[in-house]
UniProtKB/TrEMBL annotation:
It comes from Nonomuraea aridisoli. Residues 20-159 form the Mycothiol-dependent maleylpyruvate isomerase metal-binding domain. Coiled coil: none annotated. This is Mycothiol-dependent maleylpyruvate isomerase metal-binding domain-containing protein. GO terms for molecular function: metal ion binding. It comes from the Bacteria.
Amino acid sequence: MNEWDATSYAGKDTILRVVREEAERLFALAEPEEAWEAPTACAGWAVRDVVAHIADTTEGYFAAFDAARGGGDPGAAYGLPGMGARVNEQAVALRGIAQKELLDRLRADFERMQDILRGLAEDEWDGLIVPHFYMGPLPAYFYAAGQLMDYAVHAWDIRQGAGRAHALPGEAADLLVPFMFVLWQSTVRKDADLTPFELGVRVGGVNGGDFRVSVGDGGMTYEKGSLAGLPAVVEFDAGSMVLTTFGRVNAGTVRGDLAVAERFLDLFFRI
């Protein structure tokens, strides 16, 4: 039993607890009147736009779960390459909503999503397939991770915009590490050079370890294993991996061939 593995039912209570903690942090950051139009680390977005984005995203999850339980045809996935432009349009469209009204809406959305996730039975946590608007069919547990990405990373964005010294909380970072490999796989640039190569990624934290990464015509694959004989290894702590994958920072320590490591790090478009 691994309570830190959010892909398993054993990790359900842990991730839902951490999501709630991160949501409360974000709500507290967004509640002061003077914070509403303050800048964030997301280009062109104030705090109000972050709140609007998470509300819009969460409300999309409701439709996805309805579809998964027979409530309609979700259609084809929109795809991640166009995600940045679309989420910006959706968030900006809500700028006319008053601060209290939009925060109350997000809090209600959060509680409804928590109820949906907490109500998942053991066989549904990884067995119920839910159509994500951008990524297509995904197991239900991914939506808990999606909530954690939204609240933890965007709370980081708000703190970053305020110019304060800060860092990503360890529990959130640890839970997100496995999903960062999936995100990398899903964000390989269409124009990337996929001439085959290998390298290692070493990650700290409870879900870290040593990973052998292979890149080729089929994209990127990875597995845990020895890093012996590889031309380069990129080392991350858990938080730095998450923030690098989301394009908030360029972090990591390269051991070995710098050109190979940078070729890997430049494979991805950032969301």
